[in-house]
Amino acid sequence: MAASEPVTTTKTLRPDPSEFQSGDFVWPKKPGVIVPYSAAYAPDMRQVPTDFYDRQKFETEKRAYLEHVAKSDRNFTASQEDRFNRLSFEAFAKQYQGSQTLNVESLGTGSIVYVGHVAVLEIWDGKPFVIEAVSSRGVVRQPYENWLASRPGEEVWHGRVADLPQEQCSKIPAEAKKYLGRPYEFFNLDLNDDSGFYCSKLVWLAIFRSFQFPIDGDPESERFFWFSPKQLMNARRVQLLYSPGSYLDN
User: Facing residues of 130 across strands?
Assistant: First the structure.
């Protein structure tokens, strides 16, 4: 190549499926978009206002959850109940969606990534399938190619639990499949409660029940706040294998 010729590169937005193993994770995101907590609410815009998804739904579900807790065996302390009552939509979005810095030596850079969804991969008959909890449909399974087709133009991050043999990691989708058909339930803060799921809760529970360790290092399953897809991506025991780049560059 002559010195004056431009060097062209092709940006790859998605990992190579031939690198997938059962028990791996994938995080999708629209380029340049902050994705809200449910994949069903993803806005198609580059500048996202504070009401980038249904604020009223958040408030309605928060009230219903507090009523549920009041009638159940699980009781918030007075201070916890007060904090939850005063939890604004903006505070929730900031904590759940806020930037986190990835320090991934294998990728050569720290990345600030906003992601709002995560799914488990299963290799079945040589082909990848996706198991996920999604709003309005609950826990579902579909071929990876169909999953991608429903997300045109989206970037995909790829990772797995570090330091586990492949045959051990295959326990994760086997566990996740036990909950196919269970409802999507975002306001369920007990990560070990299998009556309903949001996306990253399904992954946390499948790992926990497969190996008896919490992927984020916190053995207490009853949480005051949600376990987010970014927390999973940044967990010490998660190895990030593919990144399409920094969120800030997209």
Answer: 121, 142
Q: Which two tokens stand for residue 2?
A: 């002559």
Q: H or E element: which one contains 131?
A: strand 127-134
CB 196 within 8 A of CB 185: yes
Would you place residue 54 in the very low, low, confident or very high pLDDT band (cuts 50, 70, 90)? low
Is 206 within 8 Å of 176 (Cβ atoms)? yes
> What distance in Å separates the CA atoms of residue 113 and residue 186, rounded to the nearest whole number?
22
What tokens appear for 85 in the block? Answer: 């009552």
Q: Which residues pair with 122 in a beta bridge?
A: 129
**What's residue 81's pLDDT?**
79
- Strand positions, DSSP E, 162-227: none
Residue 168, SS3 per DSSP? helix
Closest by CA position to 27, among listed 109, 124, 116, 127: 116
Which token pair is 190?
A: 């007990």
How much is the average pLDDT of 146-153? 92
Task: For residue 157, count CB atoms less than 10 angstroms from its CB and return exposed for 0-12, middle for 13-18, buried for 19 or more.
Answer: buried
Residue 199 tokens read as 């996306």
Asked if 172 contacts 160 with a C-beta cutoff of 8 angstroms, the reply is no
pTM of the model: 0.75
Q: Which range has the worst mean pLDDT, 27-36, 176-185, 189-198, 215-224?
A: 27-36
pLDDT (tens digit per residue) in 56-70: 777 887 888 888 777
Q: How far, CA to CA in Å, does 143 sit from each of 81, 123, 247?
A: 42, 10, 27
Q: Is 187 exposed, middle or buried (0-12, 13-18, 19+ CB in 10 A)?
A: middle
